[in-house]
Amino acid sequence: MAVLKILKGNIIYTATKEKFEIHEDSYLIESDGLVKGIFKEIPKEYKNVEVEDFGDSLIIPGFVDMHFHAPQFQNLGLGLDEELMPWLNKYTFPEEAKYGDEEYAKRLYTNVAKALWRNGTTRVVLFSTIHKNGTDVLMDVIDKSGIGAYIGKINMDRNSPDFYIEDTDESLKVTEEWILDTKDKYKLIKPIITPSFVPACTEKLMKGLSDLSKKYNVKIQSHLSENEGEIEWVKDLHPEYNSYASVYDGMGLLNDNTVMAHTVHSTDEEIKLLAERGTVSAHCPNGNYNLSSGIMPVRRFLESGVKVALGSDVGAGHQVGIYKVMSQAIEASKMNRVYVNREEKPLTTSEVFYLGTKAGGEFFGKVGSFEKGYEFDALVINDDNLGDKDFRCVEERLQRFIYIGDDRNIVRRYIAGKEVGEPK
Ligand code: GUN
Ligand code: FE
């Protein structure tokens, strides 16, 4: 087995959500793209391997973003005085409609790759747009960056503007062609089936997408119970179902290959269904705040056995860094306790770190931890400018980075064992 890398520094990660694992001044060894182990002394057999010594810096797993709309990066920070539906109509759809233009797509998607790279996002689940050609451009751009991703061509065939809508049969046909073209094309990039959300997809489209997911074993992403008006609309469209989640379930789209963004207003019944199906919920506190959607009660989901991970929700979310989303998730959980339910304890730093690394990483395989056999996704954090390090322990320094750090503190990025430089 080839030993390729040894990094030295203060290693910190979460194998479980309850606590940090900390190895001060230790060696993290990579072999064949995987974590070989963490050692206080370099084992004899690796003595002649060169060490990348990062001194007093922190070494942490790469961040995993479970919900990011690539074409909305261009809208970052715009239109957030609106709620979901007017925001989609005024800002989102007009921008997304442009990405059938491959030159435009390449230019704007390159900005996305750079922003993900800068912020230490090593794995990401992306929405593109309804365009197959634009989605191919996004897949090529992200592949070249070295970042691992599930990337979805959006499907939508009802209740959408006439400049941004598909014909049902054509949508299914193009999606199948796109899956066949891309499912084995890249090493770290895979297609993901992406019905926009229930109000914009007919029953025929959703059932057809479920069939494609089963036929080719492709994962699924969508939106669920984000905004109260949206939920009422789903009730009107599907009175035969008793919850929003049960519509997806009835269409064959809710299983352990699925990630659903938001789940802000899920009922106990809906939460139970998500737990039973093994569906991942992507918690997107920034988007939930910006569009006045509400506060997701994460503690209740975790205690009910739902898999929860974190999403930036760019462009409803205004921050790319998952470390920023971590602190927002803690703040949301504190307000949930004060204003909604005194019984639900706020999230802790180790819990949100776990959600933004290992919990999201599970969607990608063995990703998001430094346990032996995990894919070697790592970041080196230099926190020299965040305060005097001598008076703070490693866990406090990580906490400080999560709250007050930014992309300038991230000085190296490794994905599946490879150091990745800034995308061109
Ligand atoms: N629901 C349907 N489309 C979208 C979108 O683009 N962003 C968010 N946050 N919710 C949606
Ligand atoms: Fe979204």
Describe this structure in words.
One of its GO terms (molecular function) is guanine deaminase activity. It is an enzyme of class 3 (hydrolase). Belongs to the metallo-dependent hydrolases superfamily. ATZ/TRZ family. Its cofactor is Zn(2+). This protein has 424 residues and is of the alpha/beta class. It contains 13 helices and 17 strands. It folds into two domains: 4-61 and 369-419, Urease, subunit C, domain 1 (Roll), CATH 2.30.40.10; 63-363, Alpha-Beta Barrel (TIM Barrel), CATH 3.20.20.140. The strands form four sheets. A seven-stranded mixed sheet has the order 3-2-1-4-15-16-17. Helix 2 runs parallel beside helix 3, helix 4 (168-182) packs parallel to helix 5 (203-216) and helix 11 (322-339) packs across helix 12 (349-361). The protein is globular, with a radius of gyration of 21 Å. It binds guanine and fe (iii) ion. Guanine binds at residues 69, 84, 88, 92, 196-197, 223, 226, 287, 313, 316. Guanine binds next to helix 1.
Main attributes of the structure:
four-stranded parallel sheet, Metal_Hydrolase, binds guanine, zinc ion binding, alpha/beta, TIM Barrel, Urease, subunit C, domain 1, zinc, hydrolase, binds fe (iii) ion, seven-stranded mixed sheet, 424 residues, guanine deaminase activity
